[in-house]
Design goal:
The chain is globular and about 60 Å long. The protein has a six-stranded mixed sheet with strand order 5-14-13-10-11-12. The chain has a four-stranded mixed sheet with strand order 3-2-1-4. It is built from twelve helices and 14 strands. Strand 10 and strand 11 form a beta hairpin.
Length: 343
């Protein structure tokens, strides 16, 4: 068996992907490493070159070797390795929206994480909310297509007329880039202009006041199991955005969360329900807001970060689960899924 760590991609989360790739490659025994460059080409990378890259969250990775294949599909078609398993260290974009998963499924190649259908469903925040509705609480929301300046303004006015605060975020993206908050009575022109310039579909949601929690779910020997709860504490004037998550600016992550047992159990059940409703496999992480009337589902990430500072590794450690053992379990699940499909 040969493990191929696939990292990079063209999304704005590719720097997080590099950090995940580093942590995974450091943990496993002599994996192959493929860097998927923003231009679509694939590079065969020395493990040492990957591990020596400094400040991955801030500086783009530059491979020293030239690209071996012009596209990921070409790389797969040229694959001459017996018993390969792809460990997906990708985040965002085509790495997480089902595109990569579909290419691998078409070639009957094993890979870690959820399949193409679950990946696509969870990546679309609006679709994900529809799929989990009825099993968990969800906030009121509106979806706006790219470039719809007036529709965006009207949706903001409507939601702020019914709720004191709203949150605006890209419909299909992660790491909290392009995140905005608006309070009733605030000037909206600057936010509207910024969103229109991004030219992305957006979801506008009622802001739920409460404790910000996140819960990983891992498929273990007896099926999916919720991991310990993490609470995110955000300092006034800050948000749990990219800088808060990965550069430690204005946020603090408490694992396990210092919350009442009933709140923790409810949050874990919400994460587990979302994992199952979306059809996730391997592992996932669900963001939750614990309000006075219970936990609200925010979103589920099917390929959450596995960097040294990421939330799922923190939860695994709190649960007493070894990170290497977790990765080996994911690899084993990937191989069994392909075997079951072939049988």
């Amino acid at each position: 068996m040969t493990v191929i760590v696939l990292f990079g991609g063209s999304s704005d989360e590719r720097q997080v992907s590099v950090a995940t790739g580093q942590n995974v490659a450091r943990t496993l025994d002599r994996p192959m490493c493929w860097f998927w460059a923003p231009n679509g080409a694939v590079h065969d990378v020395r493990v040492g070159d990957l591990l020596e890259h400094q400040r991955p969250f801030e500086v783009d990775f530059k491979p020293t070797r030239p690209a071996r294949w012009p596209t990921f599909g070409a790389a797969l078609d040229a694959l001459e390795i017996d018993d390969p398993v792809f460990l997906l260290a990708l985040h965002g974009g085509e790495g997480e929206d089902g595109t990569v998963q579909r290419l691998l499924e078409e070639r009957h190649l094993p890979f870690t994480g959820s399949g193409s259908k679950a990946s696509a469903a969870a990546f679309d925040k609006g679709r994900a909310k529809e799929m989990v509705k009825g099993r968990v609480k969800v906030a009121a929301s509106r979806i706006i297509a790219p470039g719809e300046h007036e529709a965006l303004r009207e949706a903001i006015t409507d939601l702020l007329g019914r709720h004191e605060r709203i949150v605006l975020k890209p419909l299909a993206a992660g790491s909290s880039r392009g995140l905005f908050f608006l309070d009733r009575g605030a000037r909206v022109d600057e936010v509207v202009d910024s969103i229109v310039q991004l030219d992305l579909p957006y979801i506008l949601e009622q802001f739920i006041r409460g404790r910000e929690l996140t819960v990983g779910v891992a498929d273990l020997d007896d099926g999916p199991v919720p991991l310990p709860v993490v609470e995110i504490e955000v300092e006034p004037g800050h948000a749990f955005d990219y800088e808060g998550k990965y550069l430690g600016k204005g946020t603090r992550e408490i694992c396990p969360a210092k919350i009442e047992d009933d709140i923790a159990r409810a949050a874990q059940q919400t994460a587990l329900a979302a994992h199952k409703a979306l059809g996730c496999e391997g592992y996932s992480r669900t963001d939750i807001m614990a309000a006075d009337d219970g936990p609200y589902f925010l979103e589920t990430n099917t390929l959450p970060g596995l960097t040294t500072s990421s939330l799922v590794p923190q939860e695994l450690k709190a649960a007493g689960l070894d990170f290497r053992t977790f990765l080996e379990r994911q690899i084993d699940l990937a191989r069994k899924r392909v075997s079951a499909a072939a049988g």
